[in-house]
# Entry
Amino acid sequence: MGKFSKKKDSGTPAISTASLPDIVFMLLFFFMVATVMRENGEKKVTVRMPSADQVKKIEKKSLVSYIYVGTPIKKYQAKFGKEPRIQLGDAFANVTDVGPFVLKEKAAKREEEKPLMITSIKADTDVGMGIITDIKEELRKVNALKVNYSTKKGDVVTNFNK
Amino acid sequence: MAKRKLQEINAGSMADIAFLLLIFFLVTTTMESNYGIRRKLPPPEDKNQPPPPVIKKKNVLEIVINGNDQMMIEEEPADVKDVKNIAIEFITNNGKDPKSSDSPQKAVISIKHTRETSYKMYISVYNELIAAYNNVRNRYAKQKYGKPFEKLTEDEQKVVKDAFPQKIAESTPKR
# Structure
C-alpha cells in the first residue's frame, strides 16, 4: 500500500498560469491593431451590403469619403420615416448635400492626394436605384468620378436568397 | 544597515487587466470589409460637347431591368446567372453572328434601369458584366502572354485592356 499512498501525495501539478498574461496581451495587441475606430461616429442607417465577387480592395482608407444609404435605424424612424435615407458623416442628409460634402472632404486633403480621392457608396441591398442615381448625378456635378460600390465578398446569387 | 529585500510587485492581476482591455477591443472591433466594385463615372455633361457618335444597334447589348427586378437582354427575358455568358458571347463575337457585335472594341453594353430597381439587382448585373470582361481579358492574356491578367506587367495589361475595353453605358432613369 505504501507505494500507492506515495503517488497520491505528488498529485497532478497545477498548470502554471504565469504565461496567461502573455497570451492575453498577444490577443489584445491583435485586436488593438485590427480595430478601426469609426471616424464617422454613430451609424444612423442600417446597411446590409450586397455580395459581389469581382471586387477590389481599397488600399488607402484615408482617401475615401463614405456615403451611407439605408433605412433609418429604429430610434430615428419616428422622425425620419422608413424610407431609405442618406447619411453623410454622422448626420442625415439630402441628395443636394452630397456635392458639398465631397468637396469639403476633398479640400481637407493635400494637393497631390486630391485626384486619388474615392467616394465609397455603402448602400443597403434593398434600396431603390433612384436614390443611388441621384447620388451619382451629384457626384458627377462636382467631378468626383471615382466611385466604389461597397460590397461583401461572395457570390451574387446569395443576394437573392431571403 | 539592514538590507531590506526589494518587494516584488504582484503580477497576478495583470491577466485581469489585460482581459479587461481585450474584451473592450473585442467589442469595439468591427472588421470593416473594404471591398467594392470600382467604377468611373462619366464626366459631367457639357453643352458644347459634340453629340456622341452614332453606334450601330448590333454593337450594343441592351440590358433593361424593370422595377420588379426582371431583366430583358436584347428583348428576351434573362436571369442574373445568364448575364455573364451572354456578355462573353457578345463581346467575343467578332462579326460571326451578323446580329451581334463587330469587334470587342466596338462592343458596348448598355444598362437601363428604373428608379425602383433594387440596388442588389444592379450590383449583381454589374458584377456579372465585370466578370465577363475579366474572363475574356484573362483568356486573351493567357493566349498572348501565357499568364493570367493580374500577373502581366503594366504595359501588357494596357495592351489587353485596349483589346477588350470595358464599355458599359448607363442611362439615367427619368424622374
User: Anything to note?
Assistant: Chain B touches chain A through 49 residues (CB under 8 Å). The mean pLDDT of chain B is 82. Residues 18 and 129 of chain B are 49 Å apart (CA to CA).
